[in-house]
Design brief:
Blueprint (H helix, E strand, L loop, with lengths): L2 E5 L2 E4 L4 E8 L8 E6 L6 E6 L6 E3 L7 E6 L4 E6 L8 E7 L4 E2 L3 E6 L1
Parallel strand pairs: 2-11
Antiparallel strand pairs: 1-3, 3-8, 4-5, 4-9, 5-6, 7-8, 9-10, 9-11
Length: 114
């Protein structure tokens, strides 16, 4: 059974940093792109970042570019999201996602106070 478990969320002041992790189990995902999405209260889920399985090329939403960094460790079946210079508008539940396969994690709450 495929399982994605996110961790690393929490409460942080504006300008602070958090590092999210998403550990995958149940099979190997090294041949799939992985991504992070987020959903703020009252809003739709939105794309944050994606990392290519073959060459680790990365793609970011405009809101994340320059502040967030997505990375992966295929040996650990884990994808990360380093978030710096956090803003109150980054407050959301953050989900990891295996592209094409369509698996979602349960999410981890990130709250940024002003």
């Amino acid at each position: 059974q495929v399982q994605l478990v996110e961790s690393g969320g929490g409460l942080v002041q504006a300008g602070g940093s958090l590092r999210l992790s998403c550990a995958a189990s149940g099979r190997t995902f090294s041949n799939y792109d992985m991504a992070w999405y987020r959903q703020a209260p009252g809003k739709e889920r939105e794309f944050v970042a994606r990392i290519n399985w073959r060459d680790s090329n990365t793609y970011y939403a405009a809101s994340a570019k320059g502040r967030f960094t997505i990375s992966r460790d295929n040996a650990k079946n884990t994808v990360y999201l380093q978030m710096n210079s956090l803003k109150p508008e980054d407050t959301a539940i953050y989900y990891c996602y295996i592209v094409i396969m369509g698996y979602w994690g349960q999410g981890t709450q990130v709250t940024v106070s002003s």
